[in-house]
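Researcher: Next entry: Cytochrome P450 (Apiospora phragmitis).
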Amino acid sequence: MDATLPALPMLKNFSWIRKLTYAFPPTLVMQLLPNADVIAPRLYQVRDIIHRQLQAVLHSPEKLEDTPHQTLFHRMLDANAWRTKVLPDLTELHDEGFTLVFAGSNTVADTLVMGHWHLLQQPELLKALREELLTVWPFLDTRPSLADLEALPLLTATIKESLRFIPSGVSLTRVVPAQGAVLCGQHIPAGAAVGMGILHVHQSEAIFADALAFKPARWLPGDHKPHNLEHWLVPFSRGPRACFGVNLSMCELYIAYATMLRRFDMSLDGTTAEDMQWRECIAAAYPRRHLHAWCHPVEA
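Model: Predicted structure:
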């Protein structure tokens, strides 16, 4: 995904390039994209994995009965789950699989990268988080439940502050309806594509005091706050088109943070502020190396 990001602004803003790519064989298109030597084997590897999984399930649907819980395949291969009551063909299922592999991957990863970058520069905060985590995870081999982790106030506050720093310039764009729209007093014509600048909200000094500082304490109860900060935390957007993966993403963040904090003593491996600079390419593209850290396993 990192290798494909530099090409996305071009594909997003020039629709004729997107259409042109569909007219050529995929192998030729892969050679023309930036970082083709990195992208091609990765994408075809993922495509092959998805293809083999789909073929196995389509040829032997009874295999779904052996799974310990419901999976996406259960719903995707249930005709009643589709409005048309018609199952998608192999190509459509393949596209769905590709979307499920990629959607939500970079966003959670970037949140963890940004959060740990700031966290590893604050030894006192790191120590306090580990002490809090030990209250529900005293023995390394006995993992806590998600509910136990969600009840930890400092861990929750750290995750929220990490989400406030998620490197995303704009939300997914929307098309203005036929009647047009008025946004901030400005008339927007029908058919225009609009998006919200998430950073303008998350880094607003009018909402978040000392907005460029990583301060999980701002999310803890106690101090009087001039604003309802929860209202202004919008990494998943809001409204009927908000990210429907929010619960899964939060689950991943709790588990990943807790696992790294409990299992490893971490320290930065020479990462600088310049390494963490990013470009907006729908998702964040890091021209440099971004976060590198030493992770030494702790004793039980």
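Model: Note for the record: DSSP finds twelve helices and eight strands in the chain.
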